[in-house]
Fold:
Amino acid sequence: MSTMRAAVLRDFNKIEVEEVPIPRVEDVGEVVVRIKSCGFCATDYKAIKGIRRNVRFPTIPGHEPSGIVSEIGPGVVNFKVGDEVIIQPSGYCGFCRHCRVGNTHYCEHAFVTGGDGPDDVWDGAFAEYMKTRECCLFHKPAPISFDAAALTEPLSGAWKGVIHYSEMKVADDVVVIGVGSMGLLCLMVAKVAGAGRLIAIDTSDYALRNAKELGATHIVNPTREDARKRVYEIIPDGPDLIVEAAGPIEAVRLMADLRRRGTRWNVFGITTHEKFELDAGKTHFLEARMDASFGTNPLAMTRAIKLMETGLIDTEKIITHRFDLSKIHEAIEVMSSSQRNKVIINP
Ligand SMILES: [Zn+2]
Ligand SMILES: [Zn+2]
Structure:
Protein backbone atom coordinates (compact mmCIF):
# COMPACT_ATOMS: atom_id res chain seq x y z
CA MET A 1 0.00 0.00 0.00
CA SER A 2 1.58 3.27 -1.07
CA THR A 3 -1.14 5.78 -0.23
CA MET A 4 -2.58 6.95 3.08
CA ARG A 5 -5.40 9.07 4.43
CA ALA A 6 -4.41 12.60 5.43
CA ALA A 7 -6.27 15.82 6.26
CA VAL A 8 -4.88 18.18 3.63
CA LEU A 9 -5.33 21.93 4.12
CA ARG A 10 -5.44 23.45 0.61
CA ASP A 11 -6.52 26.95 1.64
CA PHE A 12 -8.00 28.62 4.71
CA ASN A 13 -11.24 26.79 5.61
CA LYS A 14 -10.50 24.18 2.93
CA ILE A 15 -9.47 20.93 4.57
CA GLU A 16 -10.46 17.46 3.38
CA VAL A 17 -9.35 13.92 4.09
CA GLU A 18 -7.60 12.76 0.91
CA GLU A 19 -5.61 9.78 -0.35
CA VAL A 20 -2.01 10.96 -0.69
CA PRO A 21 1.33 9.13 -1.07
CA ILE A 22 2.85 7.74 2.12
CA PRO A 23 6.04 9.71 2.87
CA ARG A 24 9.25 7.69 2.44
CA VAL A 25 12.67 8.21 3.99
CA GLU A 26 15.00 9.93 1.54
CA ASP A 27 17.84 11.18 3.66
CA VAL A 28 20.19 10.22 6.48
CA GLY A 29 18.47 10.23 9.88
CA GLU A 30 14.93 10.34 8.55
CA VAL A 31 12.16 8.16 9.94
CA VAL A 32 8.52 7.54 9.05
CA VAL A 33 6.03 6.96 11.85
CA ARG A 34 2.58 5.35 11.68
CA ILE A 35 0.60 7.96 13.63
CA LYS A 36 -1.71 6.59 16.33
CA SER A 37 -2.74 9.80 18.03
CA CYS A 38 -2.28 13.56 17.58
CA GLY A 39 -3.40 16.44 19.75
CA PHE A 40 -5.46 19.17 18.06
CA CYS A 41 -3.72 22.38 19.08
CA ALA A 42 -5.24 25.87 18.93
CA THR A 43 -2.38 26.70 16.52
CA ASP A 44 -3.74 24.10 14.07
CA TYR A 45 -7.24 25.49 14.46
CA LYS A 46 -5.97 29.03 13.77
CA ALA A 47 -4.16 27.84 10.63
CA ILE A 48 -7.27 26.07 9.33
CA LYS A 49 -9.51 29.06 10.01
CA GLY A 50 -7.07 31.67 8.68
CA ILE A 51 -6.63 33.32 12.07
CA ARG A 52 -2.94 32.47 11.71
CA ARG A 53 -1.79 33.59 8.25
CA ASN A 54 1.76 32.20 8.04
CA VAL A 55 0.63 29.04 6.27
CA ARG A 56 1.90 27.67 2.95
CA PHE A 57 -0.53 25.44 1.06
CA PRO A 58 -1.06 22.60 0.70
CA THR A 59 -0.10 21.40 4.15
CA ILE A 60 -1.05 18.71 6.67
CA PRO A 61 -1.53 20.17 10.18
CA GLY A 62 -0.95 18.35 13.50
CA HIS A 63 2.17 18.72 15.64
CA GLU A 64 1.43 16.73 18.83
CA PRO A 65 1.83 13.12 17.66
CA SER A 66 2.62 9.67 18.98
CA GLY A 67 2.87 6.49 16.95
CA ILE A 68 4.92 3.49 15.81
CA VAL A 69 8.09 3.66 13.71
CA SER A 70 7.34 2.17 10.27
CA GLU A 71 10.51 2.97 8.29
CA ILE A 72 14.01 4.13 9.20
CA GLY A 73 16.55 5.83 6.98
CA PRO A 74 20.30 5.32 6.83
CA GLY A 75 22.19 6.29 9.98
CA VAL A 76 19.24 5.86 12.36
CA VAL A 77 20.68 3.99 15.34
CA ASN A 78 18.44 4.56 18.36
CA PHE A 79 15.10 3.47 16.90
CA LYS A 80 13.90 0.51 14.88
CA VAL A 81 10.73 -0.38 13.00
CA GLY A 82 7.99 -1.23 15.52
CA ASP A 83 9.20 1.08 18.31
CA GLU A 84 6.46 3.10 20.01
CA VAL A 85 7.44 6.75 19.93
CA ILE A 86 6.55 10.29 20.92
CA ILE A 87 7.47 13.00 18.40
CA GLN A 88 8.79 16.45 19.21
CA PRO A 89 7.49 18.76 16.47
CA SER A 90 10.48 21.09 16.41
CA GLY A 91 13.45 19.59 14.59
CA TYR A 92 16.95 20.91 15.10
CA CYS A 93 20.50 20.46 13.83
CA GLY A 94 22.28 19.73 17.11
CA PHE A 95 25.38 21.66 16.08
CA CYS A 96 24.60 25.40 15.86
CA ARG A 97 25.50 27.73 18.75
CA HIS A 98 21.99 27.43 20.24
CA CYS A 99 21.73 23.66 19.95
CA ARG A 100 25.18 23.28 21.55
CA VAL A 101 23.89 24.84 24.78
CA GLY A 102 20.57 22.99 24.79
CA ASN A 103 18.34 25.70 23.33
CA THR A 104 17.29 23.59 20.34
CA HIS A 105 14.11 25.66 20.00
CA TYR A 106 16.33 28.56 18.83
CA CYS A 107 18.07 26.35 16.23
CA GLU A 108 19.39 28.22 13.19
CA HIS A 109 18.52 25.26 10.93
CA ALA A 110 15.20 24.37 12.53
CA PHE A 111 12.29 22.65 10.87
CA VAL A 112 8.85 21.85 12.24
CA THR A 113 6.38 19.09 11.46
CA GLY A 114 2.78 20.33 11.18
CA GLY A 115 3.31 23.61 12.98
CA ASP A 116 4.79 27.07 12.61
CA GLY A 117 7.84 29.03 13.66
CA PRO A 118 10.70 28.04 11.34
CA ASP A 119 10.56 28.59 7.56
CA ASP A 120 11.05 24.89 6.94
CA VAL A 121 7.64 23.30 7.57
CA TRP A 122 7.14 19.57 7.01
CA ASP A 123 3.78 17.83 6.75
CA GLY A 124 2.20 17.08 10.12
CA ALA A 125 0.38 14.26 11.83
CA PHE A 126 -3.28 14.60 10.86
CA ALA A 127 -2.34 11.66 8.64
CA GLU A 128 -1.74 7.94 8.89
CA TYR A 129 2.00 8.43 8.39
CA MET A 130 4.41 11.29 9.02
CA LYS A 131 8.07 11.78 8.22
CA THR A 132 10.49 13.37 10.67
CA ARG A 133 14.10 12.96 11.84
CA GLU A 134 15.48 10.67 14.51
CA CYS A 135 16.42 13.66 16.73
CA CYS A 136 12.69 14.34 17.22
CA LEU A 137 11.83 10.85 18.48
CA PHE A 138 11.50 9.71 22.09
CA HIS A 139 10.71 6.17 23.19
CA LYS A 140 7.18 5.96 24.57
CA PRO A 141 7.14 4.09 27.89
CA ALA A 142 4.57 1.25 27.74
CA PRO A 143 2.29 2.52 30.56
CA ILE A 144 1.60 5.79 28.72
CA SER A 145 -1.28 5.50 26.23
CA PHE A 146 -0.80 6.89 22.71
CA ASP A 147 -3.45 9.54 23.45
CA ALA A 148 -1.73 10.66 26.67
CA ALA A 149 1.64 10.55 24.91
CA ALA A 150 0.32 12.91 22.23
CA LEU A 151 0.20 15.58 24.93
CA THR A 152 3.91 15.31 25.73
CA GLU A 153 4.77 18.45 23.75
CA PRO A 154 2.25 20.76 25.49
CA LEU A 155 3.09 19.23 28.89
CA SER A 156 6.78 19.76 28.21
CA GLY A 157 6.07 23.41 27.41
CA ALA A 158 4.30 23.77 30.76
CA TRP A 159 7.22 22.15 32.63
CA LYS A 160 9.73 24.34 30.79
CA GLY A 161 7.85 27.54 31.67
CA VAL A 162 6.85 26.81 35.26
CA ILE A 163 9.78 24.76 36.54
CA HIS A 164 12.79 25.20 34.30
CA TYR A 165 12.51 28.92 33.53
CA SER A 166 10.47 30.36 36.40
CA GLU A 167 12.00 27.99 38.95
CA MET A 168 8.84 27.29 40.92
CA LYS A 169 9.65 25.97 44.38
CA VAL A 170 7.70 23.84 46.85
CA ALA A 171 5.08 25.85 48.79
CA ASP A 172 5.21 28.78 46.33
CA ASP A 173 1.87 30.54 46.00
CA VAL A 174 1.10 30.36 42.28
CA VAL A 175 -1.43 32.15 40.08
CA VAL A 176 -2.28 30.79 36.62
CA ILE A 177 -4.14 33.24 34.38
CA GLY A 178 -6.06 31.38 31.67
CA VAL A 179 -6.87 27.71 32.31
CA GLY A 180 -7.61 26.28 28.89
CA SER A 181 -5.59 23.19 27.98
CA MET A 182 -2.17 24.88 28.31
CA GLY A 183 -3.09 26.66 31.54
CA LEU A 184 -4.42 23.40 33.01
CA LEU A 185 -1.13 21.68 32.19
CA CYS A 186 0.75 24.55 33.90
CA LEU A 187 -1.57 24.15 36.88
CA MET A 188 -1.01 20.37 37.01
CA VAL A 189 2.76 20.88 36.89
CA ALA A 190 2.58 23.50 39.67
CA LYS A 191 0.36 21.21 41.77
CA VAL A 192 2.66 18.22 41.49
CA ALA A 193 5.68 20.45 42.19
CA GLY A 194 4.11 21.35 45.55
CA ALA A 195 2.41 24.70 45.04
CA GLY A 196 1.01 26.27 48.22
CA ARG A 197 -2.00 28.34 47.25
CA LEU A 198 -2.80 27.67 43.59
CA ILE A 199 -5.17 30.24 42.12
CA ALA A 200 -6.77 29.84 38.68
CA ILE A 201 -8.10 32.95 36.93
CA ASP A 202 -10.33 32.66 33.86
CA THR A 203 -13.38 34.32 32.34
CA SER A 204 -14.95 30.89 31.63
CA ASP A 205 -16.71 29.03 34.46
CA TYR A 206 -16.24 25.79 32.49
CA ALA A 207 -12.46 26.32 32.55
CA LEU A 208 -12.53 27.25 36.24
CA ARG A 209 -14.47 24.09 37.15
CA ASN A 210 -11.80 22.01 35.40
CA ALA A 211 -9.06 23.91 37.21
CA LYS A 212 -10.73 23.19 40.56
CA GLU A 213 -10.94 19.48 39.71
CA LEU A 214 -7.28 19.39 38.76
CA GLY A 215 -6.01 20.96 41.95
CA ALA A 216 -6.60 24.72 42.02
CA THR A 217 -7.15 25.76 45.64
CA HIS A 218 -9.03 28.89 44.54
CA ILE A 219 -10.76 30.08 41.38
CA VAL A 220 -11.36 33.68 40.32
CA ASN A 221 -13.57 34.95 37.49
CA PRO A 222 -12.56 38.53 36.60
CA THR A 223 -15.88 39.15 34.84
CA ARG A 224 -17.57 38.92 38.25
CA GLU A 225 -15.00 40.20 40.72
CA ASP A 226 -11.94 42.40 40.96
CA ALA A 227 -9.23 39.84 40.29
CA ARG A 228 -6.42 41.75 42.01
CA LYS A 229 -8.48 42.39 45.14
CA ARG A 230 -9.56 38.74 45.30
CA VAL A 231 -6.03 37.37 44.81
CA TYR A 232 -4.72 39.59 47.63
CA GLU A 233 -7.57 38.46 49.89
CA ILE A 234 -6.52 34.87 49.28
CA ILE A 235 -2.77 35.57 49.47
CA PRO A 236 -2.22 38.81 51.45
CA ASP A 237 1.54 38.51 50.80
CA GLY A 238 0.96 38.31 47.04
CA PRO A 239 1.95 35.58 44.59
CA ASP A 240 5.42 34.05 44.37
CA LEU A 241 4.82 33.11 40.74
CA ILE A 242 2.28 34.18 38.09
CA VAL A 243 1.93 32.38 34.78
CA GLU A 244 -0.05 33.93 31.94
CA ALA A 245 -1.41 31.09 29.80
CA ALA A 246 -4.35 33.01 28.37
CA GLY A 247 -3.37 34.89 25.20
CA PRO A 248 -5.19 38.25 25.39
CA ILE A 249 -3.10 41.32 26.28
CA GLU A 250 -5.49 42.02 29.22
CA ALA A 251 -4.15 38.87 30.86
CA VAL A 252 -0.59 40.20 30.61
CA ARG A 253 -1.70 43.53 32.09
CA LEU A 254 -3.43 41.71 34.94
CA MET A 255 -0.25 39.73 35.55
CA ALA A 256 1.80 42.94 35.77
CA ASP A 257 -0.79 44.33 38.17
CA LEU A 258 -0.67 41.28 40.45
CA ARG A 259 3.07 41.53 41.15
CA ARG A 260 4.57 42.34 44.50
CA ARG A 261 8.24 42.59 45.39
CA GLY A 262 10.10 39.52 44.20
CA THR A 263 7.25 37.94 42.21
CA ARG A 264 8.38 35.92 39.22
CA TRP A 265 6.06 36.31 36.22
CA ASN A 266 6.02 34.37 33.01
CA VAL A 267 4.74 35.73 29.69
CA PHE A 268 3.75 32.31 28.47
CA GLY A 269 0.47 32.38 26.55
CA ILE A 270 0.43 35.53 24.44
CA THR A 271 1.82 35.29 20.89
CA THR A 272 0.29 38.40 19.28
CA HIS A 273 2.33 41.59 18.93
CA GLU A 274 0.56 43.92 21.33
CA LYS A 275 2.05 46.37 23.78
CA PHE A 276 1.75 46.82 27.52
CA GLU A 277 3.28 49.47 29.72
CA LEU A 278 5.55 49.10 32.71
CA ASP A 279 6.45 51.74 35.29
CA ALA A 280 10.28 51.66 35.11
CA GLY A 281 10.88 52.75 38.69
CA LYS A 282 8.31 50.35 40.04
CA THR A 283 9.86 47.57 37.98
CA HIS A 284 13.23 48.46 39.50
CA PHE A 285 12.01 48.39 43.09
CA LEU A 286 9.76 45.36 42.70
CA GLU A 287 12.65 43.21 41.48
CA ALA A 288 9.88 41.11 39.94
CA ARG A 289 11.70 38.80 37.55
CA MET A 290 10.04 38.43 34.18
CA ASP A 291 10.41 35.21 32.25
CA ALA A 292 8.93 34.09 28.95
CA SER A 293 8.75 30.63 27.46
CA PHE A 294 7.82 29.19 24.09
CA GLY A 295 8.21 25.85 22.37
CA THR A 296 10.02 22.87 23.75
CA ASN A 297 13.36 21.11 23.72
CA PRO A 298 14.63 17.58 24.43
CA LEU A 299 15.21 18.32 28.14
CA ALA A 300 11.60 19.43 28.61
CA MET A 301 10.26 16.53 26.52
CA THR A 302 12.23 14.05 28.65
CA ARG A 303 10.88 15.59 31.86
CA ALA A 304 7.30 15.53 30.55
CA ILE A 305 7.64 11.84 29.65
CA LYS A 306 8.91 11.11 33.16
CA LEU A 307 6.02 13.05 34.72
CA MET A 308 3.60 10.78 32.85
CA GLU A 309 5.56 7.54 33.18
CA THR A 310 5.74 7.83 36.97
CA GLY A 311 2.06 8.69 37.24
CA LEU A 312 2.74 12.18 38.61
CA ILE A 313 0.66 13.72 35.82
CA ASP A 314 -2.09 12.00 33.84
CA THR A 315 -2.65 14.02 30.68
CA GLU A 316 -5.69 11.86 29.80
CA LYS A 317 -7.52 13.93 32.44
CA ILE A 318 -7.66 16.93 30.13
CA ILE A 319 -8.76 15.01 27.02
CA THR A 320 -12.46 15.67 26.40
CA HIS A 321 -12.89 14.55 22.78
CA ARG A 322 -11.43 11.92 20.44
CA PHE A 323 -12.11 11.73 16.70
CA ASP A 324 -11.15 9.39 13.91
CA LEU A 325 -9.32 11.30 11.16
CA SER A 326 -12.39 10.93 8.89
CA LYS A 327 -14.33 13.08 11.41
CA ILE A 328 -11.94 16.04 11.07
CA HIS A 329 -14.79 18.48 10.41
CA GLU A 330 -16.55 17.45 13.62
CA ALA A 331 -13.27 17.92 15.46
CA ILE A 332 -12.89 21.44 14.01
CA GLU A 333 -16.45 22.22 15.17
CA VAL A 334 -15.61 21.09 18.71
CA MET A 335 -12.41 23.16 18.64
CA SER A 336 -14.52 26.29 18.12
CA SER A 337 -16.57 25.56 21.23
CA SER A 338 -15.71 26.78 24.73
CA GLN A 339 -16.95 23.53 26.30
CA ARG A 340 -13.91 21.44 25.48
CA ASN A 341 -10.38 20.83 26.56
CA LYS A 342 -7.97 18.70 24.62
CA VAL A 343 -9.20 17.22 21.36
CA ILE A 344 -7.40 14.15 19.98
CA ILE A 345 -7.27 12.96 16.37
CA ASN A 346 -6.75 9.22 15.84
CA PRO A 347 -5.59 8.69 12.23
ZN1 LIG B 1 0.63 23.13 19.95
ZN1 LIG C 1 20.78 23.98 15.66
About this structure: DSSP finds eleven helices and 18 strands in the chain. The chain has two domains: 3-150+314-346, 158-292. The CA atoms of residues 39 and 64 lie 5 Å apart.
